[in-house]
Amino acid sequence: MALIVQKYGGTSVGSTDRIRNVARRVARYHREGHQLVIVVSAMSGETNRLLALAKELSADPNPRELDVVAATGEQVTIGLLAIALEAIGIKARSYTGGQVKVRTDSAFTKARIQSIDDAAMRADLGSGTVVIVAGFQGVDEDGNITTLGRGGSDTSGVALAAALKADECQIYTDVDGVYTTDPRIVPEARRLDTVTFEEMLEMASLGSKVLQIRSVEFAGKYNVRLRVLSSFEDPEATSQGTLITYEEDKHMEKATISGIAFNRDEAKISVMGVEDRPGIAYSILGPIAAANIDVDMIVQNIGASGHTDFSFTVNRSEYQKALDVLSRERTKAFKAREIIGDSRICKVSVVGIGMRSHTGIASKMFKALADEGINIQMISTSEIKISVVIDEKYLELAVRVLHQVFELDKAPSAGA
Ligand code: ADP
Ligand code: ASP
Ligand code: MG
To answer: What domains does the chain contain, in order, with CATH numbers?
Structure first.
């Protein structure tokens, strides 16, 4: 008997038929004698619909109230799944984040989990009851409802698994595992049986939305056994999906590049003709940080005649805010010839721990893009990834070409 946390995403609970299907899978695990905690997202499209309602009423809704609205999506699905389970004779009990006490900080719309009270869940599990918990939501110390950022139910699932010391956390979604890249963009993408924790962390942070980045961080910190699977398969099927592994093992697939990630949610800002002097980066990025805007890539060119150009990327949702901050600071903190914004960019990254032991990956990547006439606007690298910023109209072409050039559709040979 194992304690298993299963998380089901929006499409997996997108209709009453899908919810019935989830109930059948839960029933199978229950029949096998496992203790089960089920975390669910809102029905697909529901969180977008709720946020759009708020935006109809205000261009800048109060984040506390936005969370009150957004959190309702998951309250519907926990209740429906409990009803579906009881209809097939399985004892189940639903909990909102506040009822479990998923305690978070008070950063509305992007709260972080601080602690989880497992007492009520343990009592239910002890009596054979299936526990159903609303993903994406928590409660702060003053009792306010909070949400964990888009895609946050993954993090709820992993955090509950960590708190309960579950044997495994299974993330059920609409694809049957982690692929070499998004299979919606490249049909030849290949499912990986295993992916290392480090690679998954990079892929998630670089835009592969199959797992929310914070869920991977949590899994690493608490050593949660994490697996991605499809909820669309027959509930009686026993697929393995993709297991996130914490150690590089000799028998694992040996690939130089394991995957390609992309992100359409960034925008680039270039501050042209600033003085080339100590402190200039701080005078531009200091006010951006003070406005709580996260910066991703940064490039400063070599200056000529005492001046230089400075570019950086931010999330598209904070693009206008960043431009406003800079135009306010322009004459106070720094002088610039021109500030240029471009929101029609994207970031494409190749990821793989094999990069540590192989050279020439960057030049292979740059040549493949050059051969297609794709101009690289920015580059950043780490030990196991190379990212480029390009025009968003080339996103699909770039991902396909890189997938082909690095032969990701073919299984690499087994370990040396
Ligand atoms: P859920 O609603 O279940 O949380 P998401 O839409 O958040 O599902 O995440 C699943 C989607 O992630 C897939 O449908 C797929 O299009 C996308 N995706 C992006 N990159 C990858 C990848 N490398 N492997 C698998 N899926 C990926
Ligand atoms: N329902 C939330 C969202 O759409 C959380 C999730 O699906 O993980 O972002
Ligand atoms: Mg998701």
So the answer is: 3-247 (3.40.1160.10), 260-405 (3.30.2130.10)
For atom 10 of ligand 1, the residue with the nearest CA is 210
- 139 vs 115: CA distance, rounded Å: 10
Q: Is the CB of 191 under 6 A from ligand 1?
A: no
Q: Ligand 3 is a single-atom ion; what residues have CB below 5 A from it? A: 9, 151
Q: Is 253 helix (H, G, I), strand (E, B) or coil?
A: coil
As a whole number of Å, the end-to-end CA separation of the chain is 36
Pick from 8, 18, 182 the residue to mutate for probing ligand 1's pocket: most ligand atoms within 8 Å of its CB: 182
Q: Please name which of 63, 18, 64, 83 lies closest in space to residue 45, comparing C-alpha atoms.
A: 18
pLDDT digits (tens, 9 = 90+) for 297-346: 999 887 778 899 999 999 998 999 999 999 999 888 888 999 999 999 99
Helix crossing, 63-70 with 46-57: angle to 10°?
140
Instruction: State which of 44, 46, 110, 136 you would mutate to test the pocket of ligand 2, scoring each by most atoms of that ligand within 8 A of its C-beta.
Output: 136
Q: Of 139, 159, 43, whose CA–CA distance to 97 is shortest?
A: 139
Q: Could you identify the atom of ligand 1 that is nearest to the CA of residue 177?
A: 25
Query: Which two tokens mark 217?
Result: 């961080």
The pLDDT tens digits of the residues spanning 242-268 come to 999 987 655 455 678 999 999 999 999
The length of the chain, given as a count of residues:
416
SS3 363: helix
Taking the centre of ligand 2 as the mean of its atom positions, its distance from the CA of residue 212, in whole angstroms, is 10
Q: Please state the three-class secondary structure of 269-313 as a single string.
A: EEEEEEECCCCHHHHHHHHHHHCCCCEEEEEECCCECCEEEEEEE
Check: pTM over 0.90? Answer yes or no.
yes
φ and ψ of 393, to 5 deg? -70, -15
Q: Are 346 and 389 in contact (CB under 8 A)?
A: yes
Cα of 232 from ligand 3 centre, angstroms = 15
pLDDT at 413: 65
Residue 205 corresponds to which amino acid?
S
Question: Strand locations in 117-214, DSSP E?
Answer: 130-134, 137-139, 145-147, 168-173, 194-196
